[in-house]
Automatic annotation (TrEMBL):
Entry keyword annotation includes NADP: no
Cited Gene3D superfamilies: Chorismate lyase-like, Winged helix-like DNA-binding domain superfamily/Winged helix DNA-binding domain
Taxonomic source organism: Kribbella yunnanensis
Domain HTH gntR-type: 13-80
Keywords from the UniProt entry: DNA-binding, Transcription, Transcription regulation
Protein name as annotated: GntR family transcriptional regulator
PANTHER family given in the database record: MANNOSYL-D-GLYCERATE TRANSPORT/METABOLISM SYSTEM REPRESSOR MNGR-RELATED, MANNOSYL-D-GLYCERATE TRANSPORT_METABOLISM SYSTEM REPRESSOR MNGR-RELATED
SMART domains the UniProt entry points to: HTH_GNTR, UTRA
Length: 254
């Protein structure tokens, strides 16, 4: 269920196309998101370039998700998606690495007893106290993700809603001595429900990417279950793939 996005190919563009690509980037920098580029014919005349060469440079920027073509309408600027690595890294750290400012809005916070499903995921007895909360995660004040998290209350005594306005992993490490070691995550495409769509400021017809996962600490305890819904128009997931060695099968005669 993972998508692979091609890298930009501008290093292999011929000289004139690379020059036009640079001019297009300068033009994009002057336009707001969603603005239409001037018609292809006009740009070809302005920059004294063949339309085929111009089209090749535009194709490159479409691949890099800096431009989007709309059939019968034209070519428009767009905000590139955040390419999030599938790995043990929190939202706040990931966003900071990309030069943006992370933010959090607490949407729901409650103490409750673990029902069967939550107890199974967290590997605790049914009825044990848990903390469940929902947060809207932002990048430069733009809504990106709705995270629903469940923690065993015994692992985080005294935690309150106001403690969760930043990085959860930093809080767990610094206050509770819980080190994130590993985890498992499942990724799937979904459509948002009305409440989640409202939080993300998107229509219910906007496809999203959902992850569901558990995290383990250094004592091999499950300390977290999180279900997160990412805006499909702002996020792409990236993973590193490696070949695994498999033993050769010995031929058998029948």
């Amino acid at each position: 269920m993972l998508e692979c996005y091609p890298r930009g190919m501008h290093g292999s563009l011929p000289g004139k196309a690379a020059e036009i690509r640079a001019l297009l980037l300068s033009l994009i920098d002057t336009l707001p998101e969603g603005a239409a580029l001037p018609p292809e014919r006009e740009l070809a005349v302005r920059w004294n370039v063949a339309r085929m060469t111009l089209r090749r440079a535009v194709d490159e920027l479409v691949i890099e998700e800096l431009l989007v073509r709309r059939h019968g309408s034209g070519t428009y600027t767009t905000r590139p998606k955040v390419a999030r690595w599938l790995g043990m890294i929190g939202f706040s750290e990931d966003i900071r690495r990309r030069g943006m400012r992370p933010g959090t809005t607490m949407l729901e916070f409650r103490h409750q007893k673990a029902e069967r499903a939550a107890a199974r995921r967290l590997r605790i007895p049914v009825g044990d106290p848990i903390i469940a909360f929902t947060r809207l995660r932002l990048a430069d004040d733009f809504p990106m993700v709705v995270e629903r998290t469940t923690l065993p209350a015994a692992y985080v005594p005294g935690v309150e809603a106001e403690d969760l306005n930043g990085s959860l992993y930093d809080l767990l490490t610094n206050r509770y001595g819980i080190d994130v070691v590993s985890g498992t995550s499942r990724l799937e495409p979904v459509m948002p429900d009305a409440k989640t769509a409202g939080w993300l400021d998107i229509p219910v017809t906007q496809p999203c990417l959902a992850t569901h996962g558990i995290s383990f600490d250094s004592r091999d305890r499950v300390f977290e279950y999180t279900s997160a819904l990412y805006r499909g128009d702002r996020y792409a997931f990236t993973t590193e793939l490696r070949m695994t060695q498999t033993p050769r099968s010995r031929a058998t005669s029948f």
